[in-house]
Amino acid sequence: MSERNYLLKIQLLDIEPAIWRRFVVPSNITLDRLHDVIQIIMGWTDSHLHEFTIGQKRYTEYPESKEDGLTCGRYHLGNLIKQSGRRFHYLYDFGDSWRHEVVLEKSNYFNPELPTEIVCLEGMRACPPEDVGSVPGYLEFCDAIKDPDHEEHDHYMQWSDGDFDSEKFDCSTVNRELMKYIRWSRNRHTDWDIS
Description:
8 strands; 5 helices; Structural Genomics Hypothetical 15.5 Kd Protein In mrcA-pckA Intergenic Region, Chain A; Plasmid_pRiA4b_Orf3-like; alpha+beta; globular; 2 domains; PRiA4b ORF-3-like protein; MM3350-like_sf
């Protein structure tokens, strides 16, 4: 597989105004590592199960059978998605069902000024907090924290440590976290057992 970069855009579905990110990954990234990147750029905490749906096939972390999907760590994105404009889906947290659509915007993205091969370029709005109760729960949460007279205001302010801002997105913070991820997930020259 050639060493190409993919320009991707991910959007959390069913929420307006949109929560989205535009980011770059190498085309040879495995789906399990793409999951890691999505967790970082969206602001999730990797506390729940996930799956990708590409075409008619599902890819997940620990499928118990072929009906449950294919093992995502065995598949490279560039082998599954090749054409710009192609869309696929990412589901995070089977309980809250956070559905995302991912679009391959450019299949041969080049920018010599990129600091690393994995980088977030831009985005809008904060990701919902974990375990907030899917889209309806998130909308209620947002209403409650904005309205001091809401009966759940104090509870949600305490639950969220009082610092949630639905409009906030900081690309530089995300890229610092991606740099840590790249550093700590790199291939090593020797195994642990070097006897």
